[in-house]
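Hi support team,

I submitted a single chain yesterday and got back a structure, but I'm not sure I'm reading the token output correctly. Could someone confirm the output below corresponds to the sequence I sent? I've pasted both exactly as they appear in my results page.

Thanks,
R.
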Amino acid sequence: MTERIHTYTDQVVGQDGVVYTVHAYGMQTEAGTWNGWLVFEPERGGASLRTDRETTQPKRGDLEYWASGFEAIYLDGALARAVPA
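Hi R., thanks for writing in. Yes, this is the structure output for that exact sequence:
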């Protein structure tokens, strides 16, 4: 089951000027580890953008720690990875 792990207070602005709220999500695998990714929700509605898996952590708490430590530059790069080519 997918779980929202963290919501960032800082918003991210795409190259097209769209403002996004960013959330970290995670899901436990059958092996018991946790995969994490980021979802960018446009402030004014529309389709959300999602990165591929950004990390795999051994425990949910480790995923929470991973999600809590991002600088704005990381979120900017993740948004660029989430935009379809």
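A quick pointer for reading it: The radius of gyration is 13 Å. Let us know if anything else looks off.

Best,
Support desk
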